[in-house]
Structures are given as structure tokens and as C-alpha cells.
Write a sequence for this structure.
């Protein structure tokens, strides 16, 4: 009887821990490029629709309440920010605070100068590709029970963190919008969580690229690939190979640029991994 009681307590504790862990990711870090989690109405009410800067926001259940998981852009200013919450019969504003964060600089030398200062015909291609990339990153698919505890998509060295203020050949460019993982050409790239392949392509800056839709505006992007093993419309499971590391596009060596987008906002992928 004592053994059975101990086993029951252990199982009860294990269930509590597992349920708690399910809500630990993504990690909260309300800074530019980070994530704010805002508590909403009780979960026994209809799921609300939430908007931040006109973009739809992911909403999930956390025990007794709904909560909004808000991606904060790198351009965000510190201070009070607002989300709009809509239900069938009501619309109201919720506030959250964003703290300042200073990101380090990174200076890279690109041998192919055309990748730093593109030709006119390159700019036409870049403009056309930007529309495709923007459409992929703004995809919205209704889905509940989204797994937001990711695995690293590549076994390798984390070479360039998110948010770096970048200089290519001493010329200022946009901050680093993803996480770089250095690995040898041909290293397998794995899906960090279940999802649907929504787009693949070969782009001027990003090289061979794959986009995975995980639901409710949570999109992941994989750039500079040597080989793509998936096609749009395919379902992938966590840990399933989607291609191989390469050095296509604007690179200094073989690596994976891994991007995460939430409410059409590029955020720090490290917030989704242990």
C-alpha cells in the first residue's frame, strides 16, 4: 500500500511538472526581438482574437486563462506597448512593457562584393523575391496545441546570435534576424517541431531556403541550404530531415541561418529551445 501511494504521488508530481514544462516555452523576454506573454480572459470563454501592430497574434490556453504570445520587433522602442483583443461582443486594449536591449556588433568580409552592393538586375530579383518571402512569413493557419519547445535544427556551433548589428565590408546593414549554426556542408537539417512546408526557393541573399508553418503565425525559416529534401504542402514531424547545410546566398562559410517569425515579426530563436 505504501508503495502504491508513493507511486501515485510520483505520477501526480510528474504530470504537474510535464504540464508546467509545456508552458515554459517560448521563454518570456519582453525586449526588442523578444517575446511578451500577456494574460487574457478565462479559458471558459471563447478564444479571443488578438492583434499587435495590425498583425494577428498567437493565442493559447495556459491552465485557466487564454494568453497572447507576442513577438516584439527589433525596431520596438522601450516603454508601454498595446495589443487589441477582440471577442464576439467586445473589443479592448491590453498593455505590456518592453525593456531596452543593446545588441553587439558584427563585422563580416564578403568576398562576393555583388552580395553587398547588388547590380540593377539583382535588385529586380531581390524585390520580386521579397514579395514571396513576405507572403510566407505572414501566413496564418488556425491551429491549437502548438508545440513551442523546439529542438535545434542542426548539430553544430552557434556562430552568430540573433540581433547583431551587422556590417558587411564596413557597410551597415539590417540587424541579424536569426540564429546562425555553423556546420559542415551536407549536415542534416531537422524540423524543430511539427509543421507544414509552405514555401521553398533559391533567393539572392538567403540561398536555398525552406519555410515551415507551425500554426497561428509561427513560421520558421532555413537559409543557405545545400540541398532541399521537401516540397510545399508536405507535413513534417519534429526531428524529420528537411535538407542539408550549405553555403548558398550571402555567406562567409557553410552554416544554417535559422529564423523564427511570430505575428510576422522576426524574433530570437533561442527563446524556443532549452
Amino acid at each position: 500500500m505504501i508503495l502504491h501511494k508513493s507511486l501515485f504521488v510520483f505520477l501526480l508530481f510528474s504530470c504537474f511538472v510535464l504540464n508546467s514544462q509545456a508552458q515554459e516555452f517560448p521563454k518570456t523576454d519582453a525586449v526588442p526581438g523578444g517575446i511578451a506573454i500577456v494574460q487574457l480572459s478565462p479559458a471558459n470563454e471563447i478564444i479571443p482574437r488578438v492583434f499587435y501592430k495590425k498583425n494577428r497574434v498567437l493565442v493559447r490556453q495556459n491552465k485557466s486563462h487564454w494568453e497572447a504570445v507576442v513577438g516584439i520587433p527589433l525596431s520596438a522602442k522601450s516603454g508601454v506597448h498595446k495589443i487589441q483583443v477582440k471577442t464576439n461582443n467586445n473589443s479592448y486594449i491590453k498593455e505590456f512593457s518592453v525593456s531596452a536591449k543593446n545588441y553587439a556588433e558584427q563585422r563580416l568580409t564578403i568576398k562576393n562584393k555583388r552580395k553587398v552592393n547588388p547590380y540593377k538586375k539583382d535588385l529586380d530579383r531581390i524585390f520580386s523575391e521579397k514579395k514571396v518571402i513576405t507572403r510566407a512569413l505572414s501566413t496564418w493557419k488556425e491551429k491549437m496545441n502548438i508545440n513551442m519547445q523546439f529542438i535545434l535544427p542542426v548539430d553544430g556551433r552557434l556562430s552568430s546570435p540573433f540581433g547583431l548589428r551587422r556590417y558587411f565590408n564596413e557597410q551597415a546593414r539590417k540587424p541579424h534576424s536569426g540564429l546562425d549554426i555553423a556546420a559542415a556542408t551536407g549536415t542534416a537539417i531537422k524540423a524543430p517541431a511539427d509543421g507544414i512546408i509552405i514555401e521553398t526557393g533559391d533567393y539572392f541573399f538567403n540561398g536555398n531556403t525552406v519555410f515551415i508553418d507551425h500554426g497561428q503565425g509561427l513560421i520558421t525559416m532555413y537559409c543557405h541550404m545545400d540541398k532541399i529534401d521537401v516540397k510545399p504542402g508536405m507535413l513534417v514531424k519534429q526531428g524529420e530531415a528537411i535538407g542539408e547545410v550549405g553555403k548558398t546566398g550571402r555567406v562567409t562559410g557553410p552554416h544554417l541561418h535559422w529564423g523564427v517569425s511570430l505575428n510576422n515579426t522576426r524574433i530570437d530563436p533561442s527563446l524556443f529551445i532549452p
About this structure: DSSP finds two helices and 19 strands in the chain. Confidence is low (pLDDT under 50) at residues 1-22.
